[in-house]
Every structure is written in structure tokens, then in C-alpha cells.
Design goal:
Membrane topology: Multi-pass membrane protein
Number of domains: 3
Structural class: alpha+beta
Largest sheet: 8 strands, mixed
Shape: globular
CATH architecture of the largest domain: 2-Layer Sandwich
Distance between the termini: 74 Å
Radius of gyration: 28 Å
Family: Belongs to the carnitine/choline acetyltransferase family.
EC number: 2.3.1.21
Organism: Cyclopterus lumpus
CATH class of the largest domain: Alpha Beta
CATH superfamily of the largest domain: Choline/Carnitine o-acyltransferase, domain 2
Strand order of the largest sheet: 15-9-8-12-13-14-3-20
Number of helices: 22
CATH topology of the largest domain: Chloramphenicol Acetyltransferase
Pfam families: Carn_acyltransf, CPT_N
Length: about 750
């Protein structure tokens, strides 16, 4: 086993000559350095809180305003205090005016309707004003108080757009019935529910996010593995090292560097067009967080600081400190700790090996077991070490990698391993798991309730850009640097799991394995063309892909279905996601006529469908989507004890095609022209409906699009590999239309 380390600050013995006190200077030094680190962190947080609280003002601006005011009024010494107070009030007034002007500016979204590549004079003037009132050198949370609140759409608009979205999916008789329910709701119950929702929107920071987090995620009693958690992959064609401990060393160090930047608010806020700020609230629970199970609802547990990570390897759990001598461990030192864990030959304690299966099964049995068996003693201490860790690491004992001679099977296996593994070798409750495989390939598994995929994607881009190019490896494949001669080893966590608890673990594992075995994953790199060629067709790449997905689905199932495309609402404070209903009347019209020989008709309908999709996406981003509004109206109706046939039917329709684009947010970190392979191959998620598909895609550079498809083996209607082939053919067929148009011209 890795060496155990106990730092004892002092020892004393009682003898006839008195008390012999022996101080351990090294232990006292470590205590001093640890305290110093904690106080530095508190000071930085305090300073950042002040800077964010007064933004777009600054201490320098405060001095300028106060001194200028006092100089202008020629204040004497006896009136300095009054001058400072008046100057401070003037400074605060200026800050509030700038904030409110900026909030008003950010509430205008006309810039989104400009044609690609052209910017109107009104938009240019607006961008200049936004820059002027945005201040200088913003930190991560600087714009939070200046972001507008998510608006509540009108009942009339939501009902109209809902009927429009379901028209292509319903026969005339069912549509007429739904139209009647909609009109009745719009006239009677809807306005009453809307009044309560409006009241909440005036009072709360965001009228959707807290209910969305609670009712969609935390109150779910089924497994979060596959159903909620999602994954992110490593480089597809690049293998920096085959040494597992070394890859873990660089990756963990890069993640901890990102956490340091996050703690200091040095991560730059994401800005559209380098000017328009997006909400950063979701970053707050990225580290030191865990989803804690409850009998009826889970809760998110977050601690301000954590100096360790939790590591799992071959059935054993370890606590690994990330700081020594008052500093963060270097990559080679972290590799040294991972080597010690890999070399540990001790056997798992009874019940320890498959303990994490509790986080993979149903939530209620896990909550009851946690309360019964993990509330005291060594079990509580060990569980705390995991739940309060910065994040969770699995040193996987399998090998996963893209293999050129077996691309389909290797990528499918890789995706399934990241999504669920063995069902007991990931701690699915942690905010995220770093998984490092035996051959050096790695990936992430992330819990969904605390944030959406772009947030974890931002971290992952940082890690991948740091790992091979900035941190690097030696010729032998080890991390750069030297091992530490006196570094204390990892601490093996201890458990006392009774037989009754082991039965619960086994039951949860059975549920999880049945779920995992049913997942049909298919990942394929689409290399025929990418966004570079799509843009030459003067079409949005996302609209192009979404229309291709509709065409592929129609060919796959011979019918259309309710389609979910995730869009973000982070232009608003505490915004998360909204749904773009991608199956539109225009798209269905194009799909139906694709067999027609009329090129002109096909192209005109295709362009109409693409324009409609872009408009739907804009509406979702600017708070005019319908699904979050309908969801919140339903929640209000339940609080009031009102039964709405309309809302009940709306929310019971399954999303048989659930899609999401994984955005590449920090393009400046990667040289995609010279090295397009140095970027993540994206990530994916499990199927939302039992008889449906989940599709995630990432646009990599100009010439590559990676698709991640999931479905269930148990459904006779779905086949992920068949659907993948249909997607590829649909992409090629749509491109052919544009190429035929060029030839005709």
C-alpha cells in the first residue's frame, strides 16, 4: 500500500524529571503554510467580491471622482469627511447609472437578426455603446448585476408557437382537439397562471432556473447515470503518452490551475462578438461539489475550498492532497502519487469495490442507505472525503482509444465506458469525474444538475490545450520535472460496509447494469466536409445539420417526431437552456419533397427551412422560446392545485429526437488550421426516450464534424448505427443540392 503519513505537531512524555515536550518543526511548518494559503484565498475572494460588487467602477475611479469633486468645490481640511462622503455617493450613482444603461442595452437583441457577414450602422453604434458602458478588464462575475432578467413571453405568443410546432406531427382530428384545448387555456386558466409567473419574474433573478434545477434534475428518482450525466472525449487522433499516471498528472494539474483561475475570477467571461457578456453563474459549483441524495429530492452540496481529490482504482478509494509546502503539486509530483496508487496491491474491503454503484442506481435506495450506513464513524469520514473533494478521478483498468483499423467498435466502446463504465467505478454524484484509462486516453463524466455542457466544455478545452503543448512530456512519456523526495503518500479510505448495505449496493448495480447494457452508442467522425464548405453554401452550419437530422430521421423511421435542440439563455442572468423545436412545417415540407426531381423547388424549400430554424434559435436565445414558459406555467398550476388538460398533454409528449451541439468556445487556444486534431472530439449523452435517439455533434475546424448517437437496444424502432448511416447520407444529399445549383448556374 502507498505509504501512510501522519503529521504530528508535538509529542510529550511525562518522566520523573518533568514533562519532555518535543515539537515537530516540519509539521508546524506545514500547518503554517496551510493557514497562509487559506488566508490568501480568503483575501483574494474578498478583493474579487469588492471588485465585482462595484463593477464597472473601480477603486481608481473612486479616487478620481472623490479627488475631482473635492478639488472642484475647494474643500478645506475640516470638511474632508463630508467631501469624501459626497464623492462616494456620486461615484456609486455613476456606477448604478452605468449598470442600468448597460442592462437596457443588453436587453436589445436586434443584432441577432443581421445577415451573416453584414453589420448595420445601428448595430455598430449599439456595440460601441455596450463597450463604453462595459468598463475595462472585467472579471468572470463582473457582468452579473448588469445582465437583464429573462422575460416572460405572453400566453398568446406561446400558445401560437406551440400549435405551429406540433402541426406537422398531428393528424387533423388530433390537431383540432389540441387547438381547442389551447384556446380554452389561453382564455381561462392561462392568464391566472401567467400573473403568478410575472410576479416571480419581478422578484427572482430568473423565473425558470431554480424550478428547472429542482424539478427536472434534483427531484428525479431514477438513475442519473445515462439518464442525466453526460461525457466528454479526449483527442481523437492524438495520443500524448501511453503512461496512465503521467496523463493523469498533467490533466489533474491543468484542472487545478483552472480552479485557481476560477477562484481568483481570472477566467474571462464568455463574450459573444467579443462584446456581449454571457452569464457566468453556472461556474460556481464546478469544483468541491456533489449531488447528495434525498428520499424525495436531492440537494447540491458545495464547499468553498477543498485541498484534495478522491481517486478510485481497482475497487479502492484514496484521498490525495493537492498541496504541499504551501503550493500546488507539480505534474510530476501528481504522477508520483498516481504511481503509488497503481502500485498498491492491497485488496478492497468488503463492500468497497462496488460501493459507487449506489450513485448509479435509483436515488431513493441510495438516500436511505446513506442515512442508515454512512452517517457516522469511518464511513462518514470516507464519504465526506469523496463528496468534499475538488473532483473525482478514476484510474480505469481498461484500455480505450480510437483505432484506425477498427474505428466503429473502438469509438463505441470508448463512449460507453465514459458514459457508464462498469457502473461502479465512477462516482456519478460528483460534479465531474476525470477518467484516465490504462493506455493514457482520458475523458470526463459530468453530473448535469449544477450546470450545462458548455461550462464543463470550457474547462475541458483548457485542459486539452495545456496537456501536450504547454505542460508536455519527456521522451519516455513521463511528466516534466522530478519526483518529490519527501512527499507524503495518498491516504487509503476505510469503510465498514455491513451485509445489509452490500445487498442495497448489489440491487443498485443490477438496476444500473440493465440500464447500461441497453445503451446503443455509435460515434462517427464525418470527414466528407465541414463548416467551411457549408458556409460557402451561405447556410448556417447548425441549420444545415439539424435539417439533415430531420431528413435522416424520416428515412430511418418513415415519420417525423417532436425534436429537442438545446439552446442557451445565458444572455440573461442565471440563464440555462431553452428548447428549439427543430421539426418545423418548413423542414417537413423540404424532407417530403427531397425525392422530387425539381432542383429549384428543393432548394427554395431548404432555404426556407434553414431560415426558419435560425429564427427559432434566435427566439430561444432571446427568451421567446415556449418550452420553459410552459414548464413554469405547469409548476404554478400544481402549486395552485389546478388541473390543466392542455399543460398535461403538452408536457407528456416525448422527445424522440434529442439533439445538442457541443460548441468550441475558446478557439484561440487551438491552431485548428495547422493542427485540427488538437481539439476534443466532443461528447454525448444517453437517449431521452425509450424509442428515440440522442444526438450530439461538434464542429471541429473547417473540415470535420463528430457525431455521437445513442439509443436503446430494447427498442425495435431504433438502431444507432443505422441512424448514423442515414445522417451521413442526408448530409451528402443536402450538399449535392447546392453543388447542383452551382453547376446549373
Amino acid at each position: 500500500m502507498a505509504e501512510a503519513h501522519q503529521a504530528v505537531a508535538f509529542q510529550f512524555t511525562v518522566s520523573p524529571d518533568g514533562i519532555d515536550l518535543q515539537l515537530c518543526h516540519e509539521a508546524l511548518r506545514q500547518i503554517y503554510l496551510s493557514g497562509l494559503h487559506s488566508w490568501k484565498k480568503r483575501f483574494i475572494r474578498f478583493k474579487n467580491g469588492v471588485m465585482t460588487g462595484v463593477y464597472p467602477g473601480s477603486p481608481g475611479g473612486f479616487m478620481v471622482v472623490v479627488v475631482s469633486y473635492m478639488s472642484y468645490n475647494q474643500y478645506r481640511r475640516q470638511r474632508i469627511v463630508g467631501g469624501v462622503l459626497v464623492g462616494t455617493g456620486l461615484w456609486v450613482t455613476i456606477i448604478m447609472i452605468m449598470r442600468n444603461v448597460l442592462k437596457s442595452l443588453l436587453s436589445w437583441h436586434g443584432w441577432m437578426h443581421a445577415r451573416h457577414g453584414s453589420v448595420s450602422w445601428s448595430t455598430r453604434l449599439w456595440l460601441i455603446l455596450v463597450k463604453v458602458f462595459s468598463g475595462r478588464k472585467p472579471m468572470l462575475y463582473s457582468f452579473q448585476n448588469s445582465l437583464p432578467r429573462l422575460p416572460v413571453p405572453t400566453i398568446k405568443d406561446t400558445c401560437r408557437r406551440y400549435l405551429e410546432s406540433v402541426r406537422p406531427l398531428m393528424e387533423d382530428e388530433r390537431y383540432e382537439r389540441m387547438e381547442g384545448l389551447t384556446k380554452d387555456f389561453e382564455k381561462n386558466l392561462g392568464p391566472r397562471l401567467q400573473w403568478y409567473l410575472k410576479l416571480k419574474s419581478w422578484w427572482a433573478s430568473n423565473y425558470v432556473s431554480d424550478w428547472w434545477e429542482e424539478y427536472i434534475y434534483l427531484r428525479g428518482r431514477g438513475p442519473i447515470m445515462v439518464n442525466s450525466n453526460y461525457y466528454a472525449m479526449d483527442f481523437l487522433y492524438v495520443f500524448p503518452t501511453s503512461i496512465q499516471a503521467a496523463r493523469a498528472g498533467n490533466a489533474i494539474h491543468a484542472i487545478m490551475l483552472y480552479r485557481r483561475k476560477l477562484d481568483r475570477a481570472q477566467v474571462q467571461p464568455l463574450m459573444l462578438l467579443h462584446t456581449i457578456p454571457m452569464c457566468s453563474a453556472q461556474y460556481e459549483c464546478m469544483f468541491n461539489s456533489s449531488r447528495v441524495p434525498g428520499v424525495e429530492t436531492d440537494v447540491l452540496q458545495h464547499v468553498n475550498d477543498s485541498k484534495h481529490i478522491a481517486v478510485y482504482h481497482k475497487g479502492r478509494f484514496f484521498k490525495v492532497w493537492m498541496f504541499y509546502d504551501g503550493r500546488l503539486l507539480l505534474p510530476r509530483e501528481i504522477e508520483q502519487q498516481m504511481e503509488r496508487i497503481l502500485a498498491d496491491s492491497s485488496e478492497p474491503l468488503p463492500g468497497e469495490e462496488k460501493l459507487a454503484a449506489l450513485t448509479a442506481g435509483d436515488r431513493t435506495p441510495w438516500a436511505k442507505a446513506r442515512e442508515t450506513y454512512f452517517g457516522r464513524g469511518k464511513n462518514k469520514n470516507s464519504l465526506d472525503a469523496i463528496e468534499k473533494a475538488a473532483f473525482f478521478v478514476t484510474l480505469d483498468d481498461t484500455e480505450q482509444r480510437f483505432e484506425e483499423d477498427n474505428p466503429v467498435k473502438s469509438l463505441d466502446s470508448y463512449a460507453k465506458s465514459l458514459l457508464h463504465g462498469k457502473c461502479y467505478d465512477r462516482w456519478f454524484d460528483k460534479s465531474f469525474n476525470l477518467i484516465v484509462f490504462k493506455n493514457g486516453t482520458m475523458g470526463l463524466n459530468a453530473e448535469h444538475s449544477w450546470a450545462d455542457a458548455p461550462i464543463i466544455g470550457h474547462l475541458w478545452e483548457h485542459v486539452l490545450s495545456m496537456d501536450p503543448l504547454k505542460l508536455g512530456y519527456t521522451e519516455e512519456g513521463h511528466c516534466c520535472g522530478e519526483p518529490h523526495p519527501n512527499l507524503p503518500g495518498p491516504q487509503r479510505l476505510s469503510w465498514d460496509v455491513p451485509a445489509e448495505c452490500q445487498e442495497v449496493i448489489q440491487s443498485s448495480l443490477t438496476v444500473a447494469r440493465n440500464l447500461a447494457d441497453d445503451v446503443d452508442s455509435h460515434i462517427f467522425p464525418f470527414i466528407d466536409f465541414g463548416k467551411g464548405l457549408i458556409k460557402k453554401c451561405r447556410t448556417s452550419p447548425d441549420a444545415f445539420i439539424q435539417i439533415a437530422l430531420q431528413l435522416a430521421h424520416y428515412r430511418d423511421k418513415k415519420k417525423f417526431c417532436l425534436t429537442y435542440e438545446a439552446s442557451m439563455t445565458r444572455l440573461f442572468r442565471e440563464g440555462r437552456t431553452e428548447t428549439v423545436r427543430s421539426c418545423t412545417l418548413e423542414t417537413c415540407a423540404f424532407v417530403r419533397i427531397m425525392r422530387c426531381n425539381s432542383l429549384t423547388t428543393c432548394l427554395s424549400l431548404l432555404k426556407l427551412a434553414a431560415e426558419k430554424h435560425q429564427n427559432m434559435y434566435r427566439l430561444a436565445m432571446t427568451g421567446e422560446g415556449i418550452d420553459r414558459h410552459l414548464f413554469c406555467l405547469y409548476v404554478v398550476s400544481k402549486y395552485l392545485g389546478e388541473d390543466s388538460p392542455f399543460l398535461k398533454e403538452v408536457l407528456s409528449d416525448p422527445w424522440r429526437l434529442s439533439t445538442s451541439q457541443t460548441p468550441l468556445q475558446q478557439v484561440e487556444l487551438f491552431d485548428l488550421v495547422r493542427h485540427p486534431e488538437y481539439v476534443s472530439s466532443g461528447g454525448g449523452f444517453g437517449p431521452v426516450a425509450d424509442d428515440g435517439y440522442g444526438v450530439s455533434y461538434i464542429i471541429v475546424g473547417e473540415n470535420l464534424i463528430n457525431f455521437h448517437i445513442s439509443s436503446k437496444h430494447s427498442s425495435p424502432e431504433t438502431d444507432s448505427h443505422r441512424f448514423g448511416a442515414n445522417i451521413r447520407q442526408a448530409m451528402l444529399d443536402i450538399l449535392d443540392l447546392f453543388q447542383l445549383e452551382k453547376k446549373t448556374k
